[in-house]
Design a protein that fits this description.
Length: 426
């Protein structure tokens, strides 16, 4: 039996195995701290590491020890107020001990601080995006710089010594020897039968010259058989390895953000936080994923990442302008036979007059039939307006491809994000 001992060290020469075991053991504490950290951080500080605090009582270890056992006699101090069976009244004022309360200063007693440690950026992101996935990611296509894997493709007469196929080589050598010596072996067998008959004859009638000739011929045939090599160069067979391209799932995510005048700066910051989480999730978990950023007010515009998150342009509100642009880009650049298409839209729900009906019609007829999944985030503490009501009809038509969630304040962003992209169990 083989034993593998992992002695990897982290940056401070501590055991990496022990660290991973510790992270697994206190996973729930760390996930809770990561969830709280996401809501408190600034947008530019979203992907750094985090300091985790674990209450001391949660890291205490059970201890086995010997009990006192046996028969013991003790002398205890008596009293002149109570006898057996008396009820002891509760101390006035709610009682209490001599120690200091939690979070209060005291000139007596001592406490134990919480256990605090630092997790790295990679560990922070791992916990932040644990158990999340893009739904319905199924379409696979060969394109671009492909990754190749090798697989067996039979045998070849040429190759490297490390690829020798011993079984096929011995089989080939045996077949060659049988083919080259089969006729001689059959002739030897016939001669041996003839020799037996000659030797079985009456001694007076034996043909000694014929017996000697048969023996000479048998010896010659056996010598010829022995000269056939046991293994020749062209008997050696090599495993043939060929490369074949590995198909990959290609996905594109359309990020649609409302930047109209009705979106306050706080609302825009929450929308940006949501899209930054989505962007980090895609960049970390998927290699072949493209992101299309679309900002809109009365008109829509495809922008780069920097402009999408930091531009201050604003205006009125026509949500359908972003959906029309998404439809056009999808038809021009991303054929649905090759791409898994996703969409995420963030808005405060305000829209111009009857434009909400246009939005639902666009989604139902032109966009959602081509998409794997579409999520709508409404960032508002107010009651829902016409856009939400129209999108409810979309959710009824496409229950598996369309999801809606509301964000009221910063604490809702991360739970809503996890709810939208939670890994589905089979």
């Amino acid at each position: 039996m083989s034993y593998i001992i992992d002695r990897r060290l982290n940056a401070k020469n501590k055991s990496m195995v022990n660290r991973q075991r510790f992270l697994r053991r206190y996973r729930q504490h760390i996930k809770k701290a990561v969830s709280e950290a996401v809501t408190k951080r600034s947008i530019t500080d979203m992907e750094n590491g985090e300091q985790i605090s674990i209450p001391t009582k949660d890291i205490s270890e059970p201890v086995f020890h010997h009990g006192q056992g046996g028969y013991q006699e003790r002398v205890l101090p008596g009293n002149d107020q109570f006898v057996a069976g008396d009820r002891v009244p509760r101390p006035p004022g709610g009682g209490g001990g001599d120690g200091a309360g939690e979070g209060n200063a005291s000139d007596q007693g001592e406490g134990i601080d919480d256990f605090v440690f630092q997790i790295t950026q990679d560990e922070f992101l791992d916990f932040m995006f644990e158990d999340l996935e893009l739904p319905n990611l199924v379409k696979r296509q060969l394109s671009g710089n492909e990754e190749f894997k090798t697989r067996r493709a039979g045998v070849s007469n040429q190759g490297s010594p490390g690829q020798i196929n011993i079984v096929r080589s011995l089989r080939s050598a045996n077949a060659r020897r049988i083919a080259l010596t089969g006729g001689k072996r059959r002739k030897i067998k016939a001669l041996e039968e003839e020799l037996e008959k000659l030797e079985a004859m009456d001694p007076a009638l034996k043909d000694h010259k014929r017996i000697e000739a048969v023996l000479t011929e048998i010896a010659a045939l056996r010598g010829a058989i022995q000269k056939v090599p046991w293994l020749d160069d062209f008997d050696i067979k090599y495993n043939l390895q060929v490369k074949y391209p590995v198909p990959h799932s290609k996905a594109v995510m359309f990020c649609l953000m409302d930047v109209s005048g009705s979106m306050s700066q706080a609302t825009k910051d929450m929308a940006k936080r949501f899209f930054i989480l989505l962007y980090l999730f895609l960049q970390r978990n998927y290699e072949r994923t493209e992101v299309v950023f679309i900002r809109h007010h009365t008109s829509a515009k495809e922008v780069e990442e920097e402009e999408f998150f930091y531009s201050r342009e604003t205006g009125g509100t026509i949500v359908s302008s972003a959906l029309y642009m998404m439809k056009d880009i999808l038809e021009e650049r991303y054929p649905t036979s090759e791409w898994n298409v996703y969409g995420a839209q963030a808005s405060d729900g305000d829209n111009w007059n009857d434009d909400s009906t246009t939005c639902s019609t666009l989604l139902i007829k032109d966009i959602l039939p081509k998409l794997q999944y579409y999520s709508y985030i409404e960032i508002t503490p107010r009651q829902h307006q016409a856009l939400w009501e129209e999108y409810e009809t979309v959710a009824e038509a496409f229950p598996d491809r369309f999801a809606m969630q509301q964000i009221i304040d910063l604490t809702d962003i991360y739970p809503v994000f996890r709810e939208l992209f939670q890994k589905k169990t089979a």
